[in-house]
Amino acid sequence: MGKQKFYVVWKGHKTGVFDSWEECKEQTHGFPNAVFKSFLTRELAEKAFNSDSKEFVGVDIFEPTLSKEELALIGDPIEESISVDGACNVVTGIVEYQGVDTKTKKVLFKQGPFDGGTNNIGEFLAIVHGLAYCQKKNINIPIYSDSKNAMSWVKNKKVRTSQEKNDKNIELFKLIDRAIKWLENNEYSNKVLKWETKAWGENPADFGRK
């Protein structure tokens, strides 16, 4: 059985927040230009009902599926931070990465495209680039990544990828080698933290290509 949804009807025979699709359908069926939308929580549904429908209809609204207790344990992301992300086309193997200001989403650095990569390689390079960026700017703020593998590679200063070096990805592997050397030769106090997608939605640096 699926999770209960709550339905907001802004324009219908009757308006309000309804607990089932049947109730929503009853209020919207046959009503000209009815406006309605479903939500996962009553809290957001009531907020939406008391707002302009244009802020919600046709807009991708993130709703955490974790319990209030789980959300409380995770807490909120640190706004004064850098979020990084890597993206890879699984068909072509073209990879790129970027880092953004978590609060403003301003792009701080972006690299690529590179041939013959993987998503984890892009994520790894993004984290190391973020650390080097902070060192150069002399700022001690956290770096968020949603890749556990890349975070592990950074911690262990070793890339464990099944991707083989070839004529197409020589430049990419040069970047990997340079990133590893940077980790071996530099100390940093910036924390590398996991971006909690289930609690906070997509990483601010996400390329939006899922």
Structure description:
The chain is an alpha/beta fold and 210 residues long. It has 2 domains: 58 residues, Ribonuclease H1, N-terminal domain (Ribonuclease HI, Chain A, 3-Layer(aba) Sandwich); 119 residues, Nucleotidyltransferase, domain 5 (2-Layer Sandwich), CATH 3.30.420.10. Helix content is 34%, strand content 20%. It contains 7 helices and 8 strands; from the N terminus they run E-E-H-E-H-H-E-E-E-H-E-H-H-E-H. It has a 5-stranded mixed beta sheet with strand order 6-5-4-7-8, with helices on one face. It has a 3-stranded antiparallel beta sheet with strand order 2-1-3, sandwiched between helices. Strand 1 and strand 2 form a beta hairpin. Helix 4 crosses helix 5. The chain is elongated and about 65 Å long. The relative contact order is 0.14. The mean pLDDT is 92. Its EC number is 3.1.26.4. Keywords: Cytoplasm, Endonuclease, Hydrolase, Magnesium, Manganese, Metal-binding, Nuclease. Its cofactor is Mn(2+); Mg(2+).
